[in-house]
Write a structure and sequence with these properties.
homodimer; alpha+beta; 4 strands; DNA-binding
Chain lengths: 121, 121
DNA sequence: GGAAGGGCTTACCAAAAAGTAGGCGCTGCT
DNA sequence: AGCAGCGCCTACTTTTTGGTAAGCCCTTCC
């Protein structure tokens, strides 16, 4: 058992997983990997079905875990920008893999996502 | 929105994630990736904290999703063997990545897992 | 013949995660 | 003046997920 920050993990994989648990976290990370910088509402509008509560919550956890960084562009009317940190960016290979794997899986199931992307959403 | 098998997904990443949701699934997959073939109790004994109920449940889901395959070696006294399928093995790059990433993360936090592995568990 | 393992299943309960619905401060547009 | 949009927060409910504990069949070992 590995002990880190008062929690225990069964193995290194378990450590990695602890950062990406949550229904929407990987989706948020992938979105920021893909678009670099995004506002709160841009993220929300690209994750159909997520609630304000959960989005705000997971953004906070990702920030706490130093996976993403929030920049305040203006505070009079609050305008922010989210982006991956170096640590978050170090997950890119996985994000890319998950995307490619999903596309491949869809293809073997008769769905050509790259070709028919305009049909979705 | 992508529709597949009566479910909807927001993007290919979401499709991939649907297979590995569950607290122990990636751990089980990694274990089988590492050891090739394992019995029910070998898996259980290497995942400290998992309950019989959840283990049996997640093994069934992974089997249903064709990520792992169960072979019955003997049925008089029930003896089985679990292993990754080709589909499950296609996730290897991700499993390997998660392991390496975790080891790296631990290292930047002062824990040399590879060196001190004997101290854990 | 009794205990110990392997490979599970089941009924029940607890905790964690997510969803619902509303509200709030601020500003810019009309 | 009023409404829309941004970037949230909060109280509450629901759903999902996981854990507990017990039991069962079968066999090998002492």
């Amino acid at each position: 058992m590995i002990k880190l920050h008062n929690k225990t993990y069964t193995c290194p994989v378990d450590v990695s997983l602890s950062f990406i648990r949550g229904k929407w976290k990987v989706l948020i990370l992938f979105h920021l990997y893909y678009f670099q910088k995004r506002s709160y509402s841009e993220i929300r509008d690209n994750l159909p079905g997520i609630s304000e509560k959960v989005l705000a919550q997971q953004l906070k956890e990702l920030e706490r875990d130093r996976m993403i960084h929030k920049t305040t562009r203006s505070s009079k009317p609050l305008r922010v920008e989210y982006a991956l940190t170096d640590l978050g960016r170090s997950l890119s290979p996985m994000l890319e893999f998950l995307s490619q794997w999903g596309i491949g899986y869809l293809k073997t199931n008769g769905i050509d996502y790259l070709q028919d992307q305009h049909l979705y959403k």
